[in-house]
Amino acid sequence: MEPREKEREKIIETAVCPFCACLCDDVVISIDEAGNKIKEIRNACTFGVEKFLSAGRSERRIKKPRVDGKEADYEVALEKAVSILRVAKKPLIYGLSNSGYNAQQVALEIAKLKKGVYDISESICHNFLYPELKKGEYPFYYALLDEIRDNANVIVYWGSNPIESHPRHLSKFSLYPVGRYAMKGVMDRELITIDVVESELKKVSRWFLQVNPGTGGDAKIADLMKRLVKGEKDIAAIDFDTLVVKIADRLKRAFYGAIFVGLGVFSSENASRKVKAIFALVDALNKEGVKFVMFPMKGHFNVMGAVQLLLRETGYPFGVDFSRNRLFEPGRTTVLDVIEREEVDAALIIGADPFSSFPKDTARKLCDMPIILIDPFESPTTQFSSVVFPAAITGVEAEEIAYRMDGLPLKLEKIVNCEYPSDKTILERIHGKLAESV
Question: Is 281:222 a contact under the CB 8 Å cutoff?
């Protein structure tokens, strides 16, 4: 029996976690280099730990490329994928919020080359934010998370529960960390939660305001607070001992405040009206001399990178139709709409699972076209795909660049080796072969 290779331990002290858009950059990882496995993870949340450890678990991984449901090698799958895209008149390129910035760039080049539609999850999650910004009615009061951590003494989570979605957000960026003007951390800050449901966040909140769902309550509350902040005297039918009045008064007395807005607002009924009302509230606070910022709670770890790339390349944040001179029109050029109207005839999906997240009728129409999927993990979408490419896990098995939810770019390390190519490599091969035929 040959002697076992002596274990070599490597420690990465500032690994970046590729789970959510917090991109926590203080994760400590101990690696057994000889065994090519992660031994210990510190400073990551439960979700982050699971993401890192998923590299060593085979049950959910796509093992081999597949063509029409049968295992194949990468070259056969590549030829099939290229043949699908080559004959497509207007393909959809979608997903990429779980891909690195470099992979996103290559996918965008494929969309340009084929004059297709390029869209990301932002068009479903935060699609009402950008049209309001584009109107220019209110400026976008914005700050880096580090500035909020250093300065804010009033924190508002509106339609967001970071305990469930971004577990370290409270401890790294908002309520608990010590800051320049919050030297006692949580003792120097107050947390306000506005939501339709009670959650664990209520337990740590100084104020909790429950909104009646389906009534446009968020917009009404924001508008009422705006009028109170501005000192309007003609506010009728309000008890001036109510929680709304107390919260408005606390916002007005803040040294520095941040309103973190989540999907409870962005993905709700009448979202556009609610977003506009919260913008107006933040604008009123700033005009009254109170420094306040509004911050959308991004989900996927590099959705912000995808948005930044499109803004730089096209001036638009999502849903760009390259068949019509870079047309951007939410409700027409976004993913659900082009599928619904049967405007696209093939789909290249990267790191997304539309058959779990799209409405059923839209998913059925997606079934009518050939689908190429690049993903590390099995999902319902793999079952309906003509071509499936297993890929390395970005930020665990492949290095990349990702943008934190506030737009700060960070480098993702390669933690362990794997047998799969990165999504960037697969996309480069597809783009290269498509370019040869143009």
Answer: yes
Chain segment 124-170, per-residue pLDDT in tens: 887 667 766 666 667 778 899 999 999 999 999 999 999 999 999 99
How deeply is 330 buried, as exposed, middle or buried, from its count of CB atoms within 10 A (0-12, 13-18, 19+)? middle
Give the C-alpha separation, 399 to 411, whole Å.
Answer: 7
**Calpha distance 283→140 (Å, rounded):** 8
What pLDDT, on a 0 to 100 scale, did the predictor assign at position 3?
A: 44
Report which DSSP code applies to 302: T
In this predicted structure, the answer to whether residue 1 has a pLDDT above a threshold of 50 is no
Tokens coding 174: 């908002």
Report how far residue 264's alpha carbon sits from residue 210's, in angstroms, rounded to the nearest whole number: 12
Structure confidence by residue, pLDDT tens digits, 287-305:
999 999 999 999 999 999 9
- What is the model's pLDDT at position 410? 98
Q: Give the DSSP letter of residue 392.
A: P
Q: Check whether 427 has a pLDDT greater than 80.
A: yes
CB-CB contact of 152 with 169 (8 Å): no
Cβ neighbours of 204 (radius 10 Å): 14
Residue 434: both structure tokens together: 């498509």
Q: Which domains does the chain have, with CATH numbers?
A: 62-126+301-397+415-436 (3.40.50.740), 129-296 (3.40.228.10)
